[in-house]
């Protein structure tokens, strides 16, 4: 008996197909539909695309972006009804059963009764007829939409913990606007002939029928690649229901090979397949296939995660992913167009009812009016008429027409019930997805399609009052999603074509023979070599290429003279092994070519290159123009400036990533910008006055400083003007937002509209530097720690840097030393805030009592190397204690804390004592705020409270933001909430309860006696607002600058955090002149520059005095980094032959050649060393034998940082493979391999 496949099982599979990492070979050439019919609708693909581009895309996008439409009511915690089955059910069957089973046999009855029937009608047949279209001709395709019994498969029955959590952040305004909209009354009849039969079409997905509904902001949860591997779910369904690859019992599967994207549409080429389905089956199938296509397009648009270490700050597209889906199956895109047409038809049919929907939330009259206007415009007669070809292209009256004319009442009655039952079962499967974001978008789009079907199948007089808020939101958003996918698919197709063409061109340049054996032009051949067809010509070209490569490797220091001679001799002897290697390596990687050639020849030179510990080798190597030590913003700015001048730069970075402390700076970069902000009264002179004032300390009231302590203020403030323009014009970063931080007279702190200032600037400059890597002008040597600056014995000028790196790449074992020659050395190693027992204790012992916000690498390496050469230091005792470092409740005693950025106070946040009292001008200078906090703690101790130095909560304070402040700091607040450093509190009572429980607020002595904490805080806020409204200085704190947005919103919600003073910045450092040249003392009391040595960034002194203004750190890095880059001497017209000493370099390079290393060698990382990298500042994970540094990716990980951190320092292969496909790792480069 022929096996049959459950039709409903295919629909279950379709919903999970987009979760399956799709196996494919090289992407085929993509295709976009041409002028052809959509199928099952009266329009062409071009009709849909034209209407979408002309009117619909922009309008739907704007409407979906309104507050009403972007807040989707959804229940993401609805239990999976398929869990709870016996995990061993069916495990003993040798062959999976293809029958769905009667409802009476199931442990749990499906959403509607099982569709088991026997009849002579056109719907008659076996209980589970295959949905896979028959290849045999059929005069009248039969329909039997059989919903499955609860899935009896052990793999689906295994509960998985939720992954890729949804960002549940709702802005204060959105939260205030959300009033519970009651679900419409549904008086649904089970009688198919009843007009109300379709009212419960969306029952399973309409969140308003549950008690766990929450509103999720869709804009905070864009549809993108998550790395989630849903193959276990898909394969359970796939195997259980016999959906095999290829042909089976004379039938063809509807799915593409290997579970690839869904085949769709009704093209001539597949008319024997899809057209073999009855109309109702085909419509249902194509709607789900269209949803699948939309998902695939959106995932391809945002498929590659940010790689800040590589200068990529945003998610980017992956056109090859798109090509894998649609390169060989362009017909699948027609299902997307078809589904969009069905949605548009539903919008048109429901227009009168939708115009009656109240889309006003009542919180923002302007936003409410905008939403109403956009809805009216979408449903306006003009739009409906101008795009009538697509709004009316689908004819829903064709559905169930066969059942209406059927002579069998039983058959006529069954198909509608089957259709609705299948939809309900598909909806139930969505609750089984453990990827929360996948579930969110799956539920949204399935509900949108279900709503469209509900509208089309209900009589029009029932539309009013039949649509819930979640259905309206889902219908509009699904239409907007499909519209966006239709618009963007051609763009992905174009990018994929260009990538394919580039690959073909690259392949062509390396091809030397045709299929007929005729020799063609080789890229390795000399330009003077004429094209030829003989083997002799080919050999000669490869010989030339090999000789040129050997010479280049020797010139660049990648080969000794002995190695060069050995390779050239073999090339001239036409050694087949060397010529074969020349074909693949000589042109692009001469150094690697030489190493492989030596290994193949097994010469003494090759033996030396593979010896584990090679004696010192003498190499001829060019002298680079500059070695930059430190990869923060200062070092990168200097490097890019030199590169733009035509110089050659090597950047040494001791960490495994570039960015330093700069990448964590979030408040912004200071600068005077009168071009983009002409109304701002700020001037360079005013900026300088602010710097001078606050450099004295004590909120500008401290004692006068020596002139050399602030000698670089003029250069800083003047340079800020052109530096802002440099970032915008040369680097191309967004600095469109400007705010005012503490101590500043005007708003002059610039930041991007999205992302954090530090990481955005670092990524932008790094990206521009990396553009020079392919030419060899820019080299980055990570995990290379500089140990000494060398000088010419005759002239005293700097001539290079000695460094150490792990021996043979084994981190944590012995180190190997090297020396890089350079005309200039630019030190950009940061401060010494992390050198607790060294420079910090020697010069600023008071600071050692505090935790720090600095990375572990801030230990004064550059200071110590410079001072060994006699460099002068200045103000090393001046260390900034920042007032607000977050206290993480999970690790209150952590020595490294996260900075609570000053923008929180600039946006209107207030500081309170543990007891709830305001005590300080929040916008005062950092030292003033910190000193006031310490004084307050000491006063509390004097009053009989906790000892100020006693640890615990004694030196803890509260930072409190209202809804308005949170909205202003809209990038910082969500990040801090995500890290559990700020917490949302809905009412002031909640804030008070937290303070009482966590900070012992009721025990504080210096607070109004007998008052509840809630009342103390409320009174403090009101007094603050009264002072702001008065126009006079605050009588309590003398605060004069208040936010312009009005009073503190006491209605809630609030965002509260626990803060304490932390070591943040070292103002003192190495003394430099105006060109950033390091200076040293002369015998006569003056100073002189150290020829060729520069210092920039935090390691220098002479700018900030006793106190640095917020935002000046990034300004200093960029302004002075560029100054050093301009002053460094470069040579453009030649290279210098010299001697370089390296230890075990050849062995390291040989390892890299076999493992694909890019920085000279590949690290062999021991498990003990791996275990050391397990923090949020340094997180390594081993996967599949390779070790990855995910530090920069933590905050961008869709499932949250904690999901990676819990694997930090360990082999996470098993945990990774349970959730992700290995293709996720394509976006990352391994830092090494795990040594067994």
Automatic annotation (TrEMBL):
Biased composition (Acidic residues): 184-193
Entry keyword Membrane: yes
GO molecular function, one term: metal ion binding
Region (Disordered): 91-194, 498-538
One annotated GO biological process: protein folding in endoplasmic reticulum
Extent of the signal sequence: 1-25
UniProt keyword annotations, A-Z: Disulfide bond, Electron transport, Endoplasmic reticulum, FAD, Flavoprotein, Glycoprotein, Heme, Iron, Membrane, Metal-binding, Oxidoreductase, Redox-active center, Signal, Transport
Transmembrane parts of this sequence: none
Membrane topology annotation: Peripheral membrane protein
GO cellular component, one term: endoplasmic reticulum membrane
Cofactors demanded by this protein: FAD
Location in the cell: Endoplasmic reticulum membrane
Annotated Cytochrome b5 heme-binding domain residues: 1162-1236
Biased composition (Low complexity): 111-124, 507-517
PANTHER family hit by this protein: FUMARATE REDUCTASE (PTHR43400:SF1)
UniProt record similarity statement: Belongs to the EROs family.
Protein name in UniProt: Ero1-like protein /fumarate reductase
Lineage, broadest ranks: Eukaryota, Viridiplantae, Chlorophyta, Mamiellophyceae, Mamiellales
């Amino acid at each position: 008996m022929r096996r049959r496949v459950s039709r409903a099982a295919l629909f279950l599979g379709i919903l999970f197909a987009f979760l399956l990492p799709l196996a494919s070979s090289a992407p085929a050439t993509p295709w976009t539909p041409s002028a052809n019919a959509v199928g099952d609708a009266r329009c062409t693909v071009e009709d849909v695309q034209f209407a979408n581009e002309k009117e619909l895309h922009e309008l739907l996008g704007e409407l979906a972006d309104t507050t009403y439409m972007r807040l989707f009511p959804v229940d993401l915690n609805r239990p999976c009804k398929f869990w709870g089955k016996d995990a061993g059910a069916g495990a003993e069957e040798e062959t999976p059963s293809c029958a769905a089973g009667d409802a009476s046999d199931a442990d749990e009855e499906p959403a509607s009764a099982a569709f088991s029937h026997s009849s002579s009608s056109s719907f008659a047949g076996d209980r589970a007829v295959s949905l896979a279209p028959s290849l045999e001709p059929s005069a009248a395709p039969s329909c039997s939409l059989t919903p499955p019994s609860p899935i009896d498969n052990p793999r689906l029955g295994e509960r998985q913990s939720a992954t890729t959590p949804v960002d549940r952040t709702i802005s204060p305004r959105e939260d205030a606007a959300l009033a519970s909209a009651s679900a419409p009354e549904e008086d649904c009849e089970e009688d198919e002939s009843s007009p109300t039969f379709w009212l419960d079409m969306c029952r399973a997905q309409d969140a308003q029928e549950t008690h766990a509904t929450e509103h999720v902001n869709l804009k905070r949860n864009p549809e993108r690649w998550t790395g989630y591997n849903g193959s276990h779910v898909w394969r359970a369904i796939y195997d259980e229901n016999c959906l095999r690859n290829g042909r089976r019992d004379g039938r063809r599967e509807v799915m593409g090979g290997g579970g690839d994207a869904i085949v769709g549409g009704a093209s001539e080429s597949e008319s024997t397949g899809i057209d073999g389905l009855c109309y109702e089956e085909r419509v249902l199938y194509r709607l789900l296939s269209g949803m699948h296509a939309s998902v695939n397009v959106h995932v391809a648009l945002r498929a590659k995660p940010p790689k800040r270490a590589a200068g990529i700050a945003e998610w980017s597209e992956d056109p090859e992913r798109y090509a894998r889906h649609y390169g060989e199956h362009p017909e699948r895109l027609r299902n997307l167009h078809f589904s969009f047409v069905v949605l548009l038809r539903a919008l048109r049919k429901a227009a009168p009812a939708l115009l009656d929907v109240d889309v006003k939330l009542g919180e923002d009259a302007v936003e409410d009016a905008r939403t109403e206007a956009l809805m009216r415009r979408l449903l306006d007669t003009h739009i409906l008429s101008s795009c009538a070809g697509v709004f009316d292209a689908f004819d829903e009256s064709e559905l169930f027409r066969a059942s209406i004319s059927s002579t069998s009442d039983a058959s006529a009655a069954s198909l509608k019930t089957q259709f609705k039952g299948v939809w309900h079962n598909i909806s139930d499967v969505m609750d089984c997805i453990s990827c929360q974001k996948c579930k969110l978008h799956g539920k949204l789009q399935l509900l949108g399609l279900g709503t469209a079907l509900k509208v089309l199948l209900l009589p029009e007089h029932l539309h009013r009052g039949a649509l819930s808020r979640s259905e309206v939101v889902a219908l509009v958003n699904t239409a907007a999603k499909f519209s966006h996918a239709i618009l963007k698919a051609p763009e992905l197709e174009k990018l994929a074509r260009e990538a394919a063409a580039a690959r073909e061109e690259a392949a062509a340049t390396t091809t030397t023979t045709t299929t007929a054996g005729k020799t063609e032009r080789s890229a390795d051949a000399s330009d003077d070599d004429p094209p030829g067809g003989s083997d002799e010509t080919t050999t000669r070209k490869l010989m030339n290429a090999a000789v040129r490569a050997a010479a280049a490797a020797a010139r660049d220091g990648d080969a000794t003279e002995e190695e060069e001679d050995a390779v050239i001799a073999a090339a001239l002897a036409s050694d087949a092994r060397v010529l074969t290697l020349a074909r693949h390596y000589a042109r692009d990687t001469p150094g690697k070519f030489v190493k492989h050639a030596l290994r193949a020849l097994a010469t003494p030179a090759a033996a030396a290159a593979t010896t584990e510990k090679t004696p010192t080798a003498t190499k001829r190597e060019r002298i680079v123009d500059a070695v930059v030590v430190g990869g923060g913003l200062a070092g990168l700015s200097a490097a890019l400036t030199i590169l733009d001048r035509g110089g050659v730069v090597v950047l040494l970075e001791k960490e495994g990533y570039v960015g330093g402390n700069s990448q964590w700076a979030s408040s912004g970069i200071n600068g005077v910008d009168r071009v983009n902000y002409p109304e701002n009264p700020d001037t360079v002179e005013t900026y300088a006055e602010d710097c001078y004032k606050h450099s004295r300390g004590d909120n500008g009231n401290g004692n006068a400083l020596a002139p050399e302590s602030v000698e670089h203020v003029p250069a800083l403030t003047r340079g800020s003007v052109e530096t802002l323009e440099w970032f915008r014009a040369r680097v191309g970063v967004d600095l469109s937002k400007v705010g005012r931080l503490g101590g500043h007279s005007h708003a002059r702190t610039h930041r991007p509209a999205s992302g954090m200032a530090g990481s955005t600037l670092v990524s932008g400059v790094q990206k521009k530097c990396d553009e020079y890597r392919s030419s060899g002008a820019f080299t980055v040597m990570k995990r290379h720690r500089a140990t000494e600056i060398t000088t010419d014995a005759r002239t005293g000028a700097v001539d290079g840097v000695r460094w150490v790196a792990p021996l043979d790449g084994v981190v944590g074992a012995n180190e190997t030393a090297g020396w890089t020659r350079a005309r200039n050395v630019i030190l950009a190693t940061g401060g010494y805030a992390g050198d607790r027992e060294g420079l910090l204790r020697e010069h600023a012992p008071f600071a050692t009592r505090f935790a720090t916000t600095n990375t572990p690498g801030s230990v004064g390496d550059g200071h110590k190397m410079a001072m060994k050469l006699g460099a002068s230091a200045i103000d090393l005792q001046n260390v900034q204690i920042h007032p607000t470092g977050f206290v993480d409740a999970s690790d209150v005693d952590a020595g490294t804390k996260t900075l609570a950025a000053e923008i929180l106070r600039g946006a209107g946040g207030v500081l309170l004592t543990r007891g709830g009292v305001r005590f300080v001008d929040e916008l005062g200078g950092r030292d003033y705020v910190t000193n006031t906090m310490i004084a307050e703690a000491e006063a509390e101790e004097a009053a009989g409270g906790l000892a100020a130095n006693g640890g615990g909560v004694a030196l803890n304070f509260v930072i409190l933001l209202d809804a308005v402040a949170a909205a202003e700091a809209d990038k910082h607040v969500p990040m801090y909430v995500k890290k559990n450093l700020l917490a949302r509190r809905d009412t002031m009572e909640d804030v008070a309860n937290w303070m009482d429980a966590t900070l012992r607020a009721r025990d504080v002595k210096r607070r109004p006696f007998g008052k509840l904490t809630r009342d103390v805080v409320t009174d403090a806020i009101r007094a603050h607002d009264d002072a702001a409204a008065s126009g006079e200085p605050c009588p309590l704190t003398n605060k004069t600058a208040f936010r312009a947005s009005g009073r503190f919103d006491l209605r809630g919600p609030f965002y509260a955090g626990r803060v304490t003073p932390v070591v943040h910045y070292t103002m003192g450092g190495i003394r430099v002149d105006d060109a950033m040249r390091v200076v040293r003392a002369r015998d006569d009391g003056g100073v002189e520059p150290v020829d060729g040595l520069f210092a920039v960034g935090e390691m220098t002194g002479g700018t900030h005095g006793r106190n640095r203004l917020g935002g000046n750190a990034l300004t200093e890095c960029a302004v002075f980094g560029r100054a050093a880059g301009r002053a460094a001497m470069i040579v453009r017209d030649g290279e210098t032959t010299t001697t370089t000493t390296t230890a075990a370099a050849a062995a390291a390079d040989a390892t890299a050649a076999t493992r694909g290393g890019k920085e000279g060698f590949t690290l062999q990382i021991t498990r003990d060393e791996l275990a050391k990298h397990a923090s949020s500042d340094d997180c390594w994970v081993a996967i599949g034998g390779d070790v990855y540094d995910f530090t920069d990716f933590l905050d961008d990980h869709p499932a949250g940082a904690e999901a990676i951190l819990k694997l930090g320092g360990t082999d996470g292969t098993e945990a990774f493979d349970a959730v992700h496909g290995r293709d996720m790792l394509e976006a990352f480069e391994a830092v090494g391999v795990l040594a067994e």
